[in-house]
Amino acid sequence: MTGRVGLGFDVHPFAEDIGGGDAAARVLVLGGVAFPGEVPLRGHSDADVVAHAAADALLGAAGLGDIGMHFPDTDPAWAGADSIELLRRVSGMVRAEGWSVANVDCSVVAERPHLADRRDAMQERLSWAVGAPVTVKGRRAEGLGALGRGEGIACYAVALVER
Question: What's the pLDDT score for residue 1?
């Protein structure tokens, strides 16, 4: 059996200044789970940093490039896209290349929101999309840098694929 590891990363700023229209209806989504009442993230799709980092890790492990190659933020087709659906597509691409996903592990760096109450739901949604176990951990930046000042959320992910 041959295994490969991929590392994914994503970061999005909070959309503190969103105005009316469609932007006002935007909801913070992490790991495919909505966090109503929280300030959403700015991004071309739904800005789900957890799903994006997981997808990038899977693509890297399978040698299939990165998420921007497959779902560019310059393509209007992906505007407002459901990132869990993008992750599901990436998982299918990885499998089509003859790989099976062993697991994905995600580490979210955020001062807010707290993830503990929704961690199980996030792991379930992500695992469903990937077709393999996905774990999520929350970390704080302890006041350091832009993330520590609460300007956005980042996520690191590592994926193991096997053949």
Answer: 76
